[in-house]
Write a structure and sequence with these properties.
Its main location: nucleus. By secondary structure, the protein is of the alpha+beta class. Among the domains are: 177 residues, no CATH class; 59 residues. The chain has nine helices and eleven strands. The strands form two sheets. The protein has an eight-stranded mixed beta sheet with strand order 5-4-3-6-7-1-2-8, sandwiched between helices. The two termini are 68 Å apart.
């Protein structure tokens, strides 16, 4: 095909409606008629005024068949242009926008395996550029564990999901767990670096900081020094729903023995050293009594599609979106304070930004107008 045939004007790409085509055709017809009328007649010195009148009448009488034939030609031309446009649209239509084009049925995954392969590969976009500054290759063989962290108050709400390597220590996971209680305690000047994971029968305590406290020690002392009380509480626990389920399935069963709890420092244990059950609920405790349910949901082998940089792990694959309340007074800024039993507020509790809280509760000298309310710092819901 010659290159000239591939060239196209922009006007050729415009698609006209039927009304536009008809208007264009009629306009061309009437323009042709005006040109014929404005054309000067041939010079004939023998013709006088009467002859000019007869010639005008003659031309006037012969315009009707010319007009009809011109209209027919233009209508046929409109039809041809319309057909050409339809053919061009059909040939230029992409197959992905064509409703008649169906996806190959053999490429559709089954219901059970739908998008399952993406669970292991779609988290690479969550790796930030800052984490990629240092590259430490992952050594084989290696496994990946999917760990879920749940809310400390709304215990059925998952707040985070992370991917950790089997050869990583437990402290790497703890540093990636986000809880607003850490921010509250740090702002109040009472931050405690202590914490532990309770997985099966072992307390994995974090004692890296010199000021850290072994949370497991008083629990283990109570287990050793109050055996009768411990045994009663343990029998009460296992006689609940768990005992009823066992009885319904296996019949009458005897009370199981009290587990032998132990304590190990967290930084000395890797995930591949743990004894755990997939899907079982374990415990994460920090800041004294802030507890979270921890679930190891899945485990698989490391493969080529995973991120091969060890420094980016644990990778946060899910983070619960935080909800922030606005100031109840100005309705503009984010709330930083919350008051309870405040007599000058329309609701209890009531949320304030720093500016509105100062204006409504303190005078120009910085003294409070009244003290009959409780004040707390607010982060998010």
């Amino acid at each position: 095909m010659p290159p000239e045939s591939l060239m196209m004007m922009v006007d050729d790409l415009k698609i006209f409606t039927e009304d536009e085509l008809m208007d264009m055709s009629l306009k061309e017809i009437f323009e042709g008629m005006e040109n014929n009328e404005n054309r000067p007649p041939p010079s004939d010195q023998s013709k006088v005024g009467g002859g000019e009148k007869r010639s005008r009448k003659k031309r006037k009488g012969t315009n009707n068949p010319i007009l009809e034939s011109g209209c027919i030609e233009k209508v046929e031309q409109v039809v041809r242009i319309k057909q050409k446009q339809e053919e061009d649209k059909e040939s230029a239509r992409l197959h992905s926008f064509n409703p008649a084009c169906k996806i190959n049925e053999t490429l559709k995954p089954g219901r059970n395996g739908r998008m399952r392969s993406l669970r292991s590969t779609n988290y690479t976009k969550k790796v930030s550029a800052a984490d990629l500054q240092q590259h430490i290759p992952v050594t084989f063989p290696e496994v990946l564990l999917s760990v879920e962290v749940y809310h400390n108050v709304r215990q059925c709400v998952k707040t985070q999901e992370l991917l950790v390597l089997g050869k990583q220590p437990l402290t790497d996971l703890r540093e990636k767990i986000h809880c607003s209680m850490d921010q509250v305690m740090q702002k109040a000047g009472q931050y405690d670096p202590s914490g532990y994971f309770l997985i099966e029968d072992v307390f994995y305590t974090d004692l890296r900081d010199p000021s850290a406290i072994n949370y497991a020690k008083p629990i283990l002392d109570w287990l050793r020094n109050s055996k009768e009380e411990v045994q009663k509480k343990w029998e009460y626990i296992i006689s609940g729903r768990l005992h009823q389920k066992h009885k319904a399935i296996m019949g009458e069963v005897s009370a199981s023995n009290l587990p032998r709890f132990a304590s190990i420092e967290m930084q000395k244990i890797r995930f591949c050293d743990l004894l755990f059950r997939l899907g079982a609920g374990y415990l994460y405790c920090h800041q004294g009594d802030c507890t979270h349910t921890l679930v190891i949901r899945d485990m698989r082998l490391f493969h080529t599609d995973d991120v091969h940089n060890r420094t980016v792990y644990p990778i946060v694959t899910f983070q619960l979106k935080m909800v922030f309340k606005k100031c109840s007074a100005c309705k503009i800024f984010r709330a930083t304070k919350v008051t309870a039993d405040d007599k000058w507020t329309p609701q209890n509790p009531c949320y304030f930004c720093d500016e509105c809280f100062s204006l409504l509760h303190f005078n120009d000298d910085g003294l409070p107008y009244y003290n009959s309310f409780l004040e707390y710092d607010y982060n998010h819901d």
